[in-house]
Design brief:
about 25% helix; 11 strands; 5 helices
């Protein structure tokens, strides 16, 4: 399974300069944090941010005697930097991104800037379904901001029976203003594989082989760029 989110990023440096900057903060055995570069291409950098977390745990036995021990863990954030919009891809992200963003800002002499972006899920879905190597069907749709004349709003989740959940969702809103928040796609009924597209430029791909997932992620990247232009 892959959970991916795209953010708009400004780097203020070239990819080559950024790669060299990441190398100056390379993660090592004695590092508290740093980067590991996995691949450098002409138009992208694939890397990981790693943070070492050392905690002292204190426990008390039934007789009131305290014992302590060290616990070591690591937070890891895989990411891809691209010279094409939106600029930054986060894969299977950690809960807290602030340390990661802080170190990126530091290595770029504080030229790095990032912000969340949104996408028209319908436009992304249409482009993705057209380019996907498999025939896809929307089997679940979440719509929000359904506006009523008295100012009330509603959110609805529509799951398909035998047809297209996207078409069914449009019947429910019946001409009212609304926003498509999420769409779940399946290659065919009964399959385990799903692709979930979200309006915050995020996608979750589950139930596919490593090769299939890699192909789908590349199509997601390409079609997202078109949808946010």
């Amino acid at each position: 399974m892959s959970r991916v989110r795209w953010l708009e990023a400004e780097w203020g440096v070239t990819l080559r300069q950024l790669a060299n900057a990441l190398k100056t903060e390379r993660f090592a055995n004695d590092s508290s944090e740093g980067f590991v570069i996995d691949r450098i291409r002409r138009d992208s950098i694939e890397a990981r941010y790693i943070q070492r977390i050392e905690l002292t745990e204190v426990v008390m036995d039934p007789f009131g005697k305290e014992s302590s021990y060290q616990r070591l863990s690591f937070n890891e954030q895989a990411f891809i930097v691209s010279n094409m919009n939106p600029g930054l891809e986060l894969k299977n992200g950690s809960r807290s991104l602030q340390p990661f963003f802080s170190l990126l800002s530091q290595v770029t002499d504080f030229k790095f800037a990032v912000k969340s972006i949104s996408v028209d899920v319908d436009a992304w879905m249409a482009a993705f379904m057209k380019k996907s190597p498999s025939k896809l069907t929307p089997d679940a749709v979440q719509v929000g901001g359904i506006a009523f004349h008295d100012g009330a709003t509603a959110r609805a989740i529509v799951k398909s029976g035998r047809g297209d959940a996207s078409a069914a969702a449009k019947e429910i809103v019946a001409g009212k203003p609304y926003v498509v928040e999420k769409v779940r796609l399946r290659p065919k009924p009964g399959t385990k594989g799903t692709i979930l597209l979200s309006s915050n430029c995020a996608a979750t791909v589950t139930g596919f082989s490593i090769h299939e997932e890699s192909v789908l992620l590349e199509v997601l990247r390409e079609t997202l760029r078109r949808a946010i232009e």
